[in-house]
Amino acid sequence: MAESLTVRSAVYHADSGDRLAVETLTLDPPGHGEVRIAVRAAGVCGSDRHVIDGEWNVPLPAVMGHEAAGVVEAIGQGVRELAVGDHVIIAWHQACQRCAECTGGKPWACMRVKSNDSQLPDGTTRWRTLDGAAAWPYLAVGAMSDHVVVPDFAAIKVDERVPFDIASLIGCSVGTGYGAVVNNAKVVAGEAAVVVGAGGVGLSIISALRLAGAHPIIAVDVTPEKLTEAARVGATHGLIGGPNLASEVAALTAGGADVAFEAIGRIQTMAQLPALIRPGGRAVFVGLPPEGQTLELDALQLAYDGKIIIGSNYGGLVPARDFPRVAAAYLAGELPLDELISSRVSLDEVNDAFDAMRRGERTRSVIVF
Ligand code: APR
Ligand code: ZN
Protein backbone atom coordinates (compact mmCIF):
# COMPACT_ATOMS: atom_id res chain seq x y z
CA MET A 1 0.00 0.00 0.00
CA ALA A 2 1.40 3.38 -1.04
CA GLU A 3 1.92 6.10 1.57
CA SER A 4 0.69 9.68 1.48
CA LEU A 5 3.05 11.95 -0.42
CA THR A 6 4.20 15.51 0.03
CA VAL A 7 3.71 17.24 -3.33
CA ARG A 8 4.35 20.68 -4.85
CA SER A 9 1.35 22.13 -6.65
CA ALA A 10 0.09 25.38 -8.21
CA VAL A 11 -2.90 26.35 -6.08
CA TYR A 12 -5.67 28.90 -6.61
CA HIS A 13 -7.10 30.31 -3.36
CA ALA A 14 -10.18 32.45 -2.77
CA ASP A 15 -7.91 35.44 -2.07
CA SER A 16 -5.31 34.68 -4.78
CA GLY A 17 -6.37 37.37 -7.24
CA ASP A 18 -5.12 36.10 -10.58
CA ARG A 19 -1.92 34.61 -9.09
CA LEU A 20 -1.33 30.96 -8.29
CA ALA A 21 0.64 29.96 -5.21
CA VAL A 22 3.16 27.18 -5.70
CA GLU A 23 2.98 25.35 -2.39
CA THR A 24 3.33 22.06 -0.57
CA LEU A 25 0.29 19.80 -0.11
CA THR A 26 -0.39 16.26 1.04
CA LEU A 27 -1.61 13.74 -1.53
CA ASP A 28 -3.25 10.64 -0.07
CA PRO A 29 -2.60 7.25 -1.69
CA PRO A 30 -4.80 5.98 -4.53
CA GLY A 31 -8.01 4.34 -3.34
CA HIS A 32 -9.91 1.48 -4.96
CA GLY A 33 -9.85 1.83 -8.74
CA GLU A 34 -7.42 4.78 -8.61
CA VAL A 35 -3.83 5.32 -9.69
CA ARG A 36 -1.10 7.73 -8.66
CA ILE A 37 0.79 9.32 -11.52
CA ALA A 38 4.14 11.10 -11.46
CA VAL A 39 3.29 14.03 -13.72
CA ARG A 40 5.98 14.69 -16.34
CA ALA A 41 4.30 17.46 -18.34
CA ALA A 42 1.25 19.70 -17.84
CA GLY A 43 -0.09 22.12 -20.46
CA VAL A 44 -1.20 25.66 -19.62
CA CYS A 45 -4.74 25.79 -21.03
CA GLY A 46 -7.37 28.50 -21.54
CA SER A 47 -9.77 26.67 -19.24
CA ASP A 48 -7.45 27.12 -16.26
CA ARG A 49 -7.29 30.80 -17.11
CA HIS A 50 -11.11 31.06 -17.04
CA VAL A 51 -10.98 29.89 -13.42
CA ILE A 52 -8.04 32.04 -12.34
CA ASP A 53 -9.59 35.11 -13.94
CA GLY A 54 -12.82 34.52 -12.00
CA GLU A 55 -15.02 33.56 -14.99
CA TRP A 56 -15.90 30.09 -13.71
CA ASN A 57 -16.51 29.00 -10.14
CA VAL A 58 -14.87 25.85 -8.83
CA PRO A 59 -14.34 24.43 -5.32
CA LEU A 60 -11.41 26.15 -3.57
CA PRO A 61 -8.60 25.89 -2.83
CA ALA A 62 -8.05 24.42 -6.29
CA VAL A 63 -4.99 22.54 -7.52
CA MET A 64 -4.95 23.90 -11.07
CA GLY A 65 -4.16 22.13 -14.35
CA HIS A 66 -6.00 19.44 -16.28
CA GLU A 67 -3.86 18.73 -19.38
CA ALA A 68 -1.19 16.21 -18.43
CA ALA A 69 0.84 13.10 -19.06
CA GLY A 70 3.09 11.08 -16.81
CA VAL A 71 4.09 7.70 -15.46
CA VAL A 72 1.97 5.39 -13.30
CA GLU A 73 3.71 5.24 -9.94
CA ALA A 74 1.28 3.39 -7.66
CA ILE A 75 -1.96 1.52 -8.22
CA GLY A 76 -4.91 1.13 -5.87
CA GLN A 77 -6.86 -2.05 -5.27
CA GLY A 78 -8.90 -3.39 -8.14
CA VAL A 79 -6.88 -1.69 -10.89
CA ARG A 80 -6.42 -4.29 -13.62
CA GLU A 81 -5.43 -2.59 -16.83
CA LEU A 82 -2.54 -0.39 -15.69
CA ALA A 83 0.85 -1.23 -14.23
CA VAL A 84 3.54 0.79 -12.48
CA GLY A 85 5.77 2.34 -15.15
CA ASP A 86 3.07 2.75 -17.81
CA HIS A 87 3.13 6.06 -19.68
CA VAL A 88 -0.33 7.63 -19.58
CA ILE A 89 -2.33 10.62 -20.79
CA ILE A 90 -4.94 11.91 -18.34
CA ALA A 91 -8.56 12.53 -19.43
CA TRP A 92 -10.24 15.38 -17.56
CA HIS A 93 -13.81 14.54 -18.45
CA GLN A 94 -14.30 11.55 -16.20
CA ALA A 95 -17.63 10.04 -17.23
CA CYS A 96 -19.32 7.43 -15.02
CA GLN A 97 -18.62 4.59 -17.51
CA ARG A 98 -21.97 2.96 -16.74
CA CYS A 99 -24.93 5.06 -17.90
CA ALA A 100 -26.65 4.81 -21.31
CA GLU A 101 -24.57 7.68 -22.72
CA CYS A 102 -21.28 6.17 -21.58
CA THR A 103 -22.06 2.66 -22.77
CA GLY A 104 -23.52 4.09 -25.98
CA GLY A 105 -20.25 5.75 -27.00
CA LYS A 106 -21.09 9.29 -25.84
CA PRO A 107 -19.21 9.61 -22.54
CA TRP A 108 -19.02 13.39 -23.05
CA ALA A 109 -22.83 13.48 -22.57
CA CYS A 110 -22.72 11.59 -19.25
CA MET A 111 -24.92 13.31 -16.67
CA ARG A 112 -23.22 11.71 -13.68
CA VAL A 113 -19.82 13.32 -14.13
CA LYS A 114 -18.17 14.31 -10.87
CA SER A 115 -14.96 15.64 -12.39
CA ASN A 116 -16.61 18.94 -13.41
CA ASP A 117 -16.94 19.58 -9.66
CA SER A 118 -13.29 18.65 -9.02
CA GLN A 119 -14.33 15.37 -7.41
CA LEU A 120 -13.20 11.80 -7.84
CA PRO A 121 -16.06 9.38 -8.76
CA ASP A 122 -16.80 8.82 -5.04
CA GLY A 123 -17.22 12.57 -4.49
CA THR A 124 -13.99 13.05 -2.53
CA THR A 125 -10.47 14.41 -3.07
CA ARG A 126 -7.05 12.93 -2.23
CA TRP A 127 -5.47 16.36 -1.67
CA ARG A 128 -5.07 18.16 1.65
CA THR A 129 -3.44 21.41 2.62
CA LEU A 130 -0.76 21.15 5.31
CA ASP A 131 -3.30 22.21 7.95
CA GLY A 132 -5.54 19.32 6.93
CA ALA A 133 -8.27 21.07 4.91
CA ALA A 134 -9.46 19.50 1.66
CA ALA A 135 -7.98 20.89 -1.57
CA TRP A 136 -9.75 20.21 -4.87
CA PRO A 137 -8.01 19.15 -8.11
CA TYR A 138 -9.40 21.19 -10.99
CA LEU A 139 -11.50 18.88 -13.22
CA ALA A 140 -10.43 16.05 -10.91
CA VAL A 141 -6.92 16.18 -12.39
CA GLY A 142 -4.92 18.96 -10.66
CA ALA A 143 -2.18 18.51 -13.25
CA MET A 144 0.00 21.42 -12.11
CA SER A 145 1.39 19.18 -9.39
CA ASP A 146 4.33 16.81 -9.42
CA HIS A 147 1.96 13.93 -8.59
CA VAL A 148 -1.79 13.34 -9.00
CA VAL A 149 -4.32 10.62 -8.15
CA VAL A 150 -7.00 9.88 -10.77
CA PRO A 151 -9.48 7.08 -11.52
CA ASP A 152 -7.86 4.28 -13.53
CA PHE A 153 -10.19 4.81 -16.51
CA ALA A 154 -8.97 8.43 -16.77
CA ALA A 155 -5.35 7.33 -17.27
CA ILE A 156 -5.02 6.23 -20.88
CA LYS A 157 -1.92 4.26 -21.77
CA VAL A 158 0.15 5.84 -24.52
CA ASP A 159 2.98 4.61 -26.74
CA GLU A 160 6.26 5.39 -24.94
CA ARG A 161 7.70 6.92 -28.10
CA VAL A 162 5.37 9.94 -27.67
CA PRO A 163 7.28 12.58 -25.64
CA PHE A 164 5.52 13.61 -22.41
CA ASP A 165 5.02 17.24 -23.45
CA ILE A 166 3.24 16.19 -26.66
CA ALA A 167 1.27 13.53 -24.78
CA SER A 168 0.05 16.10 -22.24
CA LEU A 169 -1.55 18.18 -25.00
CA ILE A 170 -3.41 15.15 -26.34
CA GLY A 171 -5.27 15.13 -23.01
CA CYS A 172 -6.94 18.48 -23.68
CA SER A 173 -6.21 20.96 -26.48
CA VAL A 174 -5.04 18.53 -29.14
CA GLY A 175 -7.60 15.88 -28.26
CA THR A 176 -10.37 18.47 -28.17
CA GLY A 177 -9.35 19.92 -31.54
CA TYR A 178 -9.03 16.51 -33.15
CA GLY A 179 -12.37 15.38 -31.72
CA ALA A 180 -14.16 18.57 -32.80
CA VAL A 181 -13.09 17.90 -36.39
CA VAL A 182 -13.45 14.11 -36.50
CA ASN A 183 -16.24 13.34 -34.01
CA ASN A 184 -18.37 16.49 -33.86
CA ALA A 185 -18.10 18.06 -37.32
CA LYS A 186 -17.18 14.83 -39.17
CA VAL A 187 -15.19 16.84 -41.71
CA VAL A 188 -14.53 15.12 -45.03
CA ALA A 189 -11.84 15.81 -47.63
CA GLY A 190 -12.42 18.89 -49.74
CA GLU A 191 -14.65 20.76 -47.31
CA ALA A 192 -13.95 24.46 -46.77
CA ALA A 193 -13.20 25.24 -43.13
CA VAL A 194 -12.65 28.34 -41.01
CA VAL A 195 -11.25 28.41 -37.48
CA VAL A 196 -11.77 31.52 -35.34
CA GLY A 197 -9.04 31.72 -32.69
CA ALA A 198 -5.62 30.20 -33.31
CA GLY A 199 -4.49 29.45 -29.75
CA GLY A 200 -3.70 25.97 -28.45
CA VAL A 201 -7.17 24.65 -29.26
CA GLY A 202 -7.57 26.45 -32.61
CA LEU A 203 -4.17 25.28 -33.88
CA SER A 204 -5.11 21.73 -32.89
CA ILE A 205 -8.32 22.05 -34.90
CA ILE A 206 -6.31 23.31 -37.88
CA SER A 207 -3.86 20.41 -37.75
CA ALA A 208 -6.77 17.94 -37.57
CA LEU A 209 -8.43 19.68 -40.52
CA ARG A 210 -5.30 19.17 -42.56
CA LEU A 211 -5.32 15.50 -41.57
CA ALA A 212 -8.97 15.28 -42.69
CA GLY A 213 -8.13 16.88 -46.06
CA ALA A 214 -10.19 20.06 -45.65
CA HIS A 215 -9.52 22.84 -48.18
CA PRO A 216 -9.22 25.74 -47.86
CA ILE A 217 -8.40 26.00 -44.16
CA ILE A 218 -8.81 29.62 -43.06
CA ALA A 219 -7.37 30.71 -39.72
CA VAL A 220 -8.72 33.82 -37.98
CA ASP A 221 -7.02 35.60 -35.08
CA VAL A 222 -6.35 39.12 -33.86
CA THR A 223 -2.62 38.48 -33.49
CA PRO A 224 -0.64 38.24 -36.77
CA GLU A 225 1.94 35.92 -35.15
CA LYS A 226 -0.83 33.40 -34.47
CA LEU A 227 -1.68 33.39 -38.18
CA THR A 228 1.96 32.57 -38.94
CA GLU A 229 1.74 29.67 -36.48
CA ALA A 230 -1.53 28.59 -38.08
CA ALA A 231 0.14 28.42 -41.49
CA ARG A 232 2.85 26.19 -40.05
CA VAL A 233 0.28 23.60 -38.91
CA GLY A 234 -1.88 23.60 -42.03
CA ALA A 235 -3.86 26.81 -42.55
CA THR A 236 -3.98 27.81 -46.22
CA HIS A 237 -5.19 31.36 -45.48
CA GLY A 238 -5.07 33.74 -42.52
CA LEU A 239 -7.46 36.59 -41.70
CA ILE A 240 -7.42 39.20 -38.95
CA GLY A 241 -10.81 39.04 -37.20
CA GLY A 242 -13.18 42.00 -37.46
CA PRO A 243 -16.64 43.10 -38.58
CA ASN A 244 -16.02 42.20 -42.26
CA LEU A 245 -15.02 38.64 -41.50
CA ALA A 246 -18.11 37.03 -43.09
CA SER A 247 -17.56 38.66 -46.48
CA GLU A 248 -13.82 37.90 -46.37
CA VAL A 249 -14.55 34.23 -45.66
CA ALA A 250 -17.25 34.16 -48.34
CA ALA A 251 -14.76 35.47 -50.89
CA LEU A 252 -12.33 32.65 -50.13
CA THR A 253 -14.97 29.88 -50.06
CA ALA A 254 -17.40 30.70 -52.90
CA GLY A 255 -20.10 31.94 -50.55
CA GLY A 256 -19.29 30.51 -47.14
CA ALA A 257 -17.43 27.69 -45.42
CA ASP A 258 -18.85 24.19 -45.05
CA VAL A 259 -17.76 24.20 -41.44
CA ALA A 260 -16.66 26.88 -38.95
CA PHE A 261 -15.14 26.45 -35.51
CA GLU A 262 -15.02 28.98 -32.66
CA ALA A 263 -12.01 28.25 -30.44
CA ILE A 264 -11.86 31.26 -28.13
CA GLY A 265 -15.00 31.25 -25.96
CA ARG A 266 -16.01 34.86 -26.71
CA ILE A 267 -19.70 35.60 -27.12
CA GLN A 268 -19.04 38.06 -29.96
CA THR A 269 -17.09 35.60 -32.10
CA MET A 270 -19.53 32.80 -31.27
CA ALA A 271 -22.44 34.95 -32.50
CA GLN A 272 -20.52 35.69 -35.70
CA LEU A 273 -20.00 32.00 -36.52
CA PRO A 274 -23.25 31.13 -38.37
CA ALA A 275 -22.61 33.98 -40.82
CA LEU A 276 -19.34 32.33 -41.87
CA ILE A 277 -20.99 29.15 -43.18
CA ARG A 278 -23.03 28.43 -46.30
CA PRO A 279 -26.62 27.09 -46.18
CA GLY A 280 -26.50 23.61 -44.67
CA GLY A 281 -23.07 24.30 -43.14
CA ARG A 282 -22.01 23.44 -39.59
CA ALA A 283 -21.02 25.94 -36.90
CA VAL A 284 -19.09 24.20 -34.13
CA PHE A 285 -18.71 25.81 -30.71
CA VAL A 286 -15.52 24.58 -29.09
CA GLY A 287 -14.36 27.55 -26.98
CA LEU A 288 -16.06 27.81 -23.60
CA PRO A 289 -17.46 31.24 -22.60
CA PRO A 290 -17.74 32.68 -19.08
CA GLU A 291 -20.68 31.37 -17.04
CA GLY A 292 -24.13 32.88 -17.50
CA GLN A 293 -23.76 34.52 -20.93
CA THR A 294 -26.35 34.27 -23.72
CA LEU A 295 -25.97 34.32 -27.51
CA GLU A 296 -27.96 36.38 -29.99
CA LEU A 297 -28.31 34.70 -33.37
CA ASP A 298 -30.14 35.56 -36.60
CA ALA A 299 -33.02 33.11 -36.12
CA LEU A 300 -34.47 33.32 -39.64
CA GLN A 301 -31.06 32.76 -41.19
CA LEU A 302 -30.54 29.65 -39.07
CA ALA A 303 -33.89 28.12 -39.98
CA TYR A 304 -34.20 29.17 -43.61
CA ASP A 305 -30.60 28.31 -44.50
CA GLY A 306 -30.71 25.01 -42.61
CA LYS A 307 -27.56 25.83 -40.70
CA ILE A 308 -26.44 23.33 -38.12
CA ILE A 309 -25.18 24.40 -34.71
CA ILE A 310 -22.97 21.88 -32.94
CA GLY A 311 -21.88 22.15 -29.32
CA SER A 312 -18.58 20.43 -28.72
CA ASN A 313 -17.66 19.28 -25.23
CA TYR A 314 -14.16 17.78 -25.08
CA GLY A 315 -14.38 17.14 -28.83
CA GLY A 316 -16.89 14.34 -28.34
CA LEU A 317 -13.88 12.26 -27.33
CA VAL A 318 -13.90 8.68 -26.21
CA PRO A 319 -10.46 8.98 -24.61
CA ALA A 320 -9.58 5.28 -24.59
CA ARG A 321 -10.34 5.11 -28.31
CA ASP A 322 -9.23 8.54 -29.48
CA PHE A 323 -6.02 9.30 -27.51
CA PRO A 324 -4.22 6.31 -29.06
CA ARG A 325 -5.46 7.37 -32.53
CA VAL A 326 -4.08 10.87 -32.07
CA ALA A 327 -0.79 9.48 -30.75
CA ALA A 328 -0.53 7.13 -33.74
CA ALA A 329 -1.17 9.97 -36.19
CA TYR A 330 1.58 11.99 -34.46
CA LEU A 331 4.05 9.11 -34.60
CA ALA A 332 3.22 8.61 -38.29
CA GLY A 333 4.16 12.25 -38.93
CA GLU A 334 0.59 13.20 -39.83
CA LEU A 335 -0.06 15.69 -37.01
CA PRO A 336 2.51 18.50 -36.51
CA LEU A 337 2.16 18.62 -32.73
CA ASP A 338 5.76 19.69 -32.04
CA GLU A 339 4.86 23.02 -33.65
CA LEU A 340 2.22 23.66 -30.99
CA ILE A 341 4.60 23.95 -28.04
CA SER A 342 6.12 27.41 -27.81
CA SER A 343 7.81 27.11 -24.44
CA ARG A 344 8.65 24.68 -21.70
CA VAL A 345 8.64 26.13 -18.19
CA SER A 346 9.05 25.04 -14.58
CA LEU A 347 6.18 24.89 -12.09
CA ASP A 348 7.56 28.04 -10.45
CA GLU A 349 7.08 29.93 -13.72
CA VAL A 350 3.37 29.12 -13.95
CA ASN A 351 2.15 32.70 -13.39
CA ASP A 352 4.42 34.00 -16.17
CA ALA A 353 2.93 31.39 -18.51
CA PHE A 354 -0.62 32.60 -17.77
CA ASP A 355 0.47 36.22 -18.22
CA ALA A 356 1.86 35.35 -21.65
CA MET A 357 -1.47 33.70 -22.53
CA ARG A 358 -3.38 36.80 -21.40
CA ARG A 359 -1.19 38.90 -23.70
CA GLY A 360 -2.06 36.54 -26.60
CA GLU A 361 1.56 35.40 -26.77
CA ARG A 362 2.82 31.82 -27.13
CA THR A 363 0.88 28.98 -28.69
CA ARG A 364 1.21 26.58 -25.78
CA SER A 365 3.36 26.67 -22.67
CA VAL A 366 3.99 23.28 -21.09
CA ILE A 367 5.15 22.86 -17.50
CA VAL A 368 7.74 20.11 -17.32
CA PHE A 369 8.63 18.24 -14.13
N1 APR B 1 -10.94 37.29 -32.82
C1 APR B 1 -10.07 36.32 -33.22
N2 APR B 1 -9.17 35.75 -32.37
C2 APR B 1 -9.16 36.15 -31.10
C3 APR B 1 -10.03 37.17 -30.61
C4 APR B 1 -10.95 37.74 -31.54
N3 APR B 1 -11.79 38.68 -31.18
N4 APR B 1 -9.76 37.35 -29.30
C5 APR B 1 -8.77 36.49 -28.96
N5 APR B 1 -8.40 35.76 -30.05
C6 APR B 1 -7.38 34.72 -30.14
C7 APR B 1 -6.15 34.94 -29.29
O1 APR B 1 -5.22 35.80 -29.94
C8 APR B 1 -5.60 33.52 -29.14
O2 APR B 1 -4.72 33.17 -30.20
O3 APR B 1 -7.94 33.50 -29.63
C9 APR B 1 -6.87 32.64 -29.21
C10 APR B 1 -7.24 31.96 -27.88
O4 APR B 1 -6.25 31.02 -27.60
P1 APR B 1 -5.68 30.66 -26.12
O5 APR B 1 -5.75 31.88 -25.26
O6 APR B 1 -4.38 29.96 -26.33
O7 APR B 1 -6.78 29.64 -25.52
P2 APR B 1 -6.94 28.06 -25.76
O8 APR B 1 -6.18 27.31 -24.74
O9 APR B 1 -6.72 27.75 -27.21
O10 APR B 1 -8.47 27.86 -25.39
C11 APR B 1 -9.49 28.45 -26.15
O11 APR B 1 -11.07 26.70 -25.77
O12 APR B 1 -11.10 24.86 -24.39
C12 APR B 1 -11.49 26.15 -24.55
O13 APR B 1 -11.61 26.95 -22.30
C13 APR B 1 -10.90 27.05 -23.50
O14 APR B 1 -12.41 28.78 -23.96
C14 APR B 1 -11.06 28.37 -24.14
C15 APR B 1 -10.84 28.08 -25.62
ZN1 ZN C 1 -7.97 22.37 -21.41
UniProtKB/TrEMBL annotation:
Record's GO cellular component terms: cytosol
Enzyme Commission designation: 1.1.1.1, 1.1.1.284
Positions of the Enoyl reductase (ER) domain: 17-367
BP terms from Gene Ontology: formaldehyde catabolic process
Enzyme class: oxidoreductase
PANTHER family linked to this entry: ALCOHOL DEHYDROGENASE, ALCOHOL DEHYDROGENASE CLASS-3
Name of the protein in question: S-(Hydroxymethyl)glutathione dehydrogenase/alcohol dehydrogenase
UniProt source species: Leucobacter aridicollis
